[in-house]
UniProtKB/TrEMBL annotation:
Protein's name in the database: Methylthioribose-1-phosphate isomerase
GO biological processes: L-methionine salvage from methylthioadenosine
InterPro entries (alphabetical): IF-2B-related (IPR000649), IF-M1Pi (IPR005251), IF_2B-like_C (IPR042529), Initiation_fac_2B_a/b/d (IPR011559), M1Pi_N (IPR027363), NagB/RpiA_transferase-like (IPR037171)
Database matches in Pfam families: IF-2B
Recorded name of the encoding gene: mtnA
Pathway(s) the chain acts in: Amino-acid biosynthesis; L-methionine biosynthesis via salvage pathway; L-methionine from S-methyl-5-thio-alpha-D-ribose 1-phosphate: step 1/6
Keywords linked to the UniProt accession: Amino-acid biosynthesis, Isomerase, Methionine biosynthesis
Site, as annotated: Transition state stabilizer: C165
PANTHER family: METHYLTHIORIBOSE-1-PHOSPHATE ISOMERASE
Organism: Gluconacetobacter liquefaciens (Acetobacter liquefaciens)
Molecular function, one GO term: S-methyl-5-thioribose-1-phosphate isomerase activity
EC number(s) given by UniProt: 5.3.1.23
Length: 367
């Protein structure tokens, strides 16, 4: 995608700078567009843990490059397995992270140590290219949903879409998942408007999604997390599209905390609720999302404080709760498949069910 008419991906390698890996520091957006230069494994792990880099597909891609950086130090079997395990443990819920590390190891284990660094960079690059292509395909398939609503509403009508958290290009290598269909609809001339949930406690919607949409010229309005149901009750939402960090083989969806409540409201008001994802986000080993998907519990300080820009341009973090009040901070919730209208994947649209996924992915369904 583009920032100020300059095309970017969310992760890239500088071969002239020691094969260093570069990412945007997402904790600094939207106030500053800072680029982080990563040259060692621990920097990559820290960037993932602290959410300087976030979004399930992007985490996997960056972790893959993290393993390549680690191999530059020690490419032995023991070191590689240790480094891979460390990177895989940085975030527990997003399955793309484990998938990317497993794919890297499958490529690297058969090779002699001296061949591993070059192969690791090559494989990480392939993961990035495939993610960008998958997300572009998700955009094309999801576009059909917006086109159908626009046709039904009539010429000149605006399609109102609600999203939650950030599932745009900054959460992937390029294009995004939930936002890809929106970008394509806007670029094709359809009138779209996006209701952007703020997404407490880290405000990825208010900070990242709003920044992305604004940079691309997509009309949008930021609303508080609890406004979605009200908007649906009054006919102001035509479609909900969200991303996901893990989908079970039966169609249960783990996504940013608060997604479940949006799905309930959508179900009650007859609003289509679609989930956009690359197939790398499907965990074919898991059947019951509520029982089997680990939910990351993050620091309470994310709830008790908020970061923003002051009137004089300073970035400040302030406490918003009384001293001594505790805070719980589950980062994700699970939306049961019965509340999901369908899934948008790189292979097309399908029902959020084992049968629906098996129809699109027969090569995985029997695994």
């Amino acid at each position: 995608m583009k920032i100020g008419n300059v095309p970017y991906r969310s992760v890239w390698v500088d071969q002239d700078d020691g094969w260093s890996v570069h990412i945007f520091d997402q904790t600094r957006l939207p106030w500053a567009l800072d680029v982080l230069r990563l040259i060692e494994r621990d920097q990559v792990a820290q960037a993932i843990r602290t959410m300087q880099v976030r979004g399930a597909p992007l985490i996997g891609a960056v972790a893959a490059y993290g393993l390549a950086l680690a191999l530059r130090v020690d490419a032995s079997d023991a070191a590689m397995e240790h480094d891979a395990a460390l990177l895989a443990e940085t975030r527990p819920t997003a399955i793309n992270l484990r998938w990317a590390i497993d794919r890297m190891l499958a490529r690297l284990r058969p090779l002699p140590a001296e061949a591993r660094v070059a192969a690791a960079y090559d494989e990480a690059g392939r993961i990035c290219d495939e993610d960008a292509a998958q997300n572009e395909a998700i955009g094309r398939h999801g576009l059909s949903l917006i086109q159908e609503i626009a046709a039904r509403r009539g010429e000149g009508a605006t399609v109102n879409i609600l999203t939650h958290c950030n599932a745009g290009w900054i959460a992937t290598v390029d294009w995004g998942t939930a936002l890809a269909p929106i970008y394509m609809a806007h670029d094709s001339g359809l009138k779209v408007h996006v209701w952007v949930d703020e997404t407490r406690p880290r405000n990825q919607g208010a900070a990242l999604t709003a920044w992305e949409l604004g940079s691309h010229g997509v009309p949008h309005t930021v609303v508080v997390d609890n406004a979605g149901g009200h908007l649906m009750q009054h006919g102001l939402v035509d479609l909900v599209i969200v991303g996901t960090d893990r989908v079970t083989r039966g169609g249960d969806v783990a996504n940013k905390i608060g997604t479940y409540l949006k799905a309930l409201a959508a179900h009650d008001n007859g609003v289509p609720f679609w989930v956009a994802l690359p197939s790398t986000t499907i965990d074919w080993r898991v059947t019951d999302g509520l029982v089997e998907i680990p939910i990351e519990e993050r620091a309470g300080a994310e709830v008790t404080s908020v970061t923003g820009q002051t009137a004089d341009g300073r970035i400040e973090t302030v406490q918003v709760t009384p001293p001594g009040s505790g805070a719980a901070n589950p980062a994700f919730d699970v939306t049961p498949a019965r509340l999901v209208t369908g899934l948008i994947t790189e292979r097309g649209l399908c029902a959020a069910s084992q049968a629906g996924l098996a129809e699109l992915f027969p090569d995985h369904a029997e695994a």
